[in-house]
Design brief:
With 209 residues, this protein is of the alpha+beta class. It has helices spanning 2-33, 55-78, 89-106, 118-132, 135-142, 168-171; strands spanning 155-156, 181-186, 189-194, 199-204. The longest helix is centred in the first third of the chain and has 32 residues, at 2-33. The radius of gyration is 40 Å and the shape is globular.
């Protein structure tokens, strides 16, 4: 009798321990399930690609940059001493150099691409290339072309060097420039020259093939 009672007590204790363990496991499982799960983050939106400018937008940008230069030149010219009408080359040269110095001072931080920005240069190349590939046009461009000479933005065009010819068929493809500003070739490169100040105001490399 006492043996059976002891066996029952032992069985009850074992069942109770098993139930307690099961309860602990369930509790641990619930706790793990309720732990904060990592939140999937949405991918950041891709940066929009740079919009391609239309020809009309490029042309408008080019004109605006040229207009800004002309306004600067006019302001520099207004502050220069008035030049009486004269045919004396020395006086004309002095007036030219005075204007050149005032413009150079006013745009002392100017650099290549300020007017002929990369997208503008690419546009002008695209306009010129078909005509510039013509053998007769190539020969015409070589006329009076100074070839390899040093030049820079805000630099004076060398007096002793010839000014290259820009063939009419090439000139017709290019946007019209303000008065006294001209396209000129130096080797395969093209400069913008202010004829009044004899100043190189910008340039683009490898303009023609």
């Amino acid at each position: 009798m006492n043996g059976r009672f002891a066996a029952r007590v032992a069985l009850a204790v074992a069942l109770s321990a098993t139930a307690a363990c099961a309860k602990q496991e369930q509790s641990a499982a619930r706790e793990a399930a309720t732990q904060e799960q990592p939140v999937a983050r949405e991918a950041a939106p891709a940066e929009p690609s740079q919009a391609v400018k239309s020809d009309a937008e490029i042309l408008g940008d080019f004109k605006e940059r040229l207009d800004q230069y002309v306004a600067l030149r006019n302001k520099a010219d207004d502050g220069a001493p008035a030049l009486k009408k004269t045919d004396d080359p020395s006086k004309i040269r002095v007036a030219q150099q005075t204007l050149e110095e005032r413009i150079r001072s006013a745009r002392s931080t100017a650099g290549q691409g300020d007017i002929l920005a990369p997208h503008i240069a690419a546009y002008l190349r695209r306009l010129m290339r078909p005509e510039a590939k013509d053998p007769e046009t190539k020969a015409s461009i070589k006329d009076d072309n100074p070839g390899t000479i040093p030049f820079k933005v805000n630099g004076e065009y060398p007096d002793k060097e010839p000014l290259s010819t820009v063939p009419p068929n090439v000139l017709q493809t290019l946007p019209k420039l303000p008065d006294d500003i001209e396209y000129r070739f130096v080797g395969k490169h093209m400069i913008l020259r202010d004829g009044r100040a004899n100043l190189i105001i910008d340039y683009m490399t490898n303009a023609i093939p």
